From TrEMBL:
<dbReference type="InterPro" id="IPR014014">
    <property type="entry name" value="RNA_helicase_DEAD_Q_motif"/>
</dbReference>
<feature type="short sequence motif" description="Q motif">
    <location>
        <begin position="93"/>
        <end position="121"/>
    </location>
</feature>
<keyword id="KW-0694">RNA-binding</keyword>
<keyword id="KW-0067">ATP-binding</keyword>
<dbReference type="GO" id="GO:0016787">
    <property type="term" value="F:hydrolase activity"/>
</dbReference>
<keyword id="KW-0347">Helicase</keyword>
<protein>
    <recommendedName>
        <fullName>RNA helicase</fullName>
        <ecNumber>3.6.4.13</ecNumber>
    </recommendedName>
</protein>
<feature type="domain" description="DEAD-box RNA helicase Q">
    <location>
        <begin position="93"/>
        <end position="121"/>
    </location>
</feature>
<dbReference type="GO" id="GO:0005524">
    <property type="term" value="F:ATP binding"/>
</dbReference>
<dbReference type="GO" id="GO:0003724">
    <property type="term" value="F:RNA helicase activity"/>
</dbReference>
<feature type="domain" description="Helicase ATP-binding">
    <location>
        <begin position="126"/>
        <end position="296"/>
    </location>
</feature>
<dbReference type="InterPro" id="IPR011545">
    <property type="entry name" value="DEAD/DEAH_box_helicase_dom"/>
</dbReference>
<dbReference type="Pfam" id="PF00270">
    <property type="entry name" value="DEAD"/>
</dbReference>
<dbReference type="InterPro" id="IPR014001">
    <property type="entry name" value="Helicase_ATP-bd"/>
</dbReference>
<keyword id="KW-0547">Nucleotide-binding</keyword>
<keyword id="KW-0378">Hydrolase</keyword>
<dbReference type="InterPro" id="IPR027417">
    <property type="entry name" value="P-loop_NTPase"/>
</dbReference>
Amino acid sequence: MSQKIDWAKFADEQEKVLHQKVPTLESFNMISQINIQSNEANGKDFEDAPEQFSVAEATLLRKVLRKGLMDSKNDIKVQRDNPNSPLRVCSVKTFEALHLNPNLLKGVYDMGFNAPSKIQETALPALLANPPQNLIVQSQSGTGKTAAFILAMLSRVDVSKKYPQVLCLSPTYEVAIETGEVAAHMAKFCPEIEIKYAVRGEEVSRGSRLTEQLIIGTPGKVLDWALKFQVFDLKKLTVFMLDEADVMIATSGHQDQCIRIHKKLSPSCQVMSFSITYDLKCMEFAEVLVPDPIIISLKKGEESLDNIQRQGIPPTGLLKRCQKKATPSLF
Ligand SMILES: Nc1ncnc2c1ncn2[C@@H]1O[C@H](COP(=O)(O)OP(=O)(O)OP(=O)(O)O)[C@@H](O)[C@H]1O
């Protein structure tokens, strides 16, 4: 019976609702600024504004407003569910120490990254370890999570194989596009790596086969392409990445869709989940998808307001309200 559900259509409808509220990253930023100005001119604070933001919108707003890396002085915590796991989690202070493909390293430097961020220092060696390890990573917005998992995903691509090997699930169209743009920049000197977006507006025909190695998409569209159109084989994936697990579970239908995709993976597929927070529900979800994980977390510090202020954007009730959306997290 569940086979009859048109997941892509369902996801597209959810996306449309979000899109109507948040037309594009740029216009969202512009609208925020205009609203801020007009409310400030009226002597009103956004705290009084009746409009409510979803978790996805609040996360998107944070992303839009933040432009640089956020410093963290907090300690990294590493936990392991499986005490027999052979991996000794170490940390690196340079990208060279990761022994990356030279063209990938060139891409990292081209992005202006000189050294790994705090979370990257520990997460990257674990993400790149052999045999591959499953990981759950938590750290706050702007600490370099996206760059870390993109580097790991790109490192795992075998360019001699022309089929999808790495799948990154994003909770929304906007996040998928942003992730793809960062991946394309990092892979700038690796032209053999090809990226395909599985998001609204992208279509495939039944009977065709995807040749791109990296797929970045929203769960409904991915499910449709993999199971209904069968344009790629989930069993052949070597990496399954779940981005923004907290937003994923807060978005209707995504949790089920992720689980359905996950069920089709090969047991040897490396699975990773990244998120700003993991409350109990989110952690339960992550643990279903990520067996025997190494859990790497960076304790929350003084969140975004200071950092956003450093970017020269005024703290407003709008931002404060977005921060208030955060649910109590396990770490
Ligand atoms: N090692 C690094 N050195 C310098 N800048 C970095 C580094 N890693 C990431 N950045 C930059 O810092 C910013 C935040 O990084 P990134 O988007 O990876 O963080 P994030 O934790 O995923 O944030 P969010 O949760 O909001 O998506 C980006 O502008 C990114 O280009």
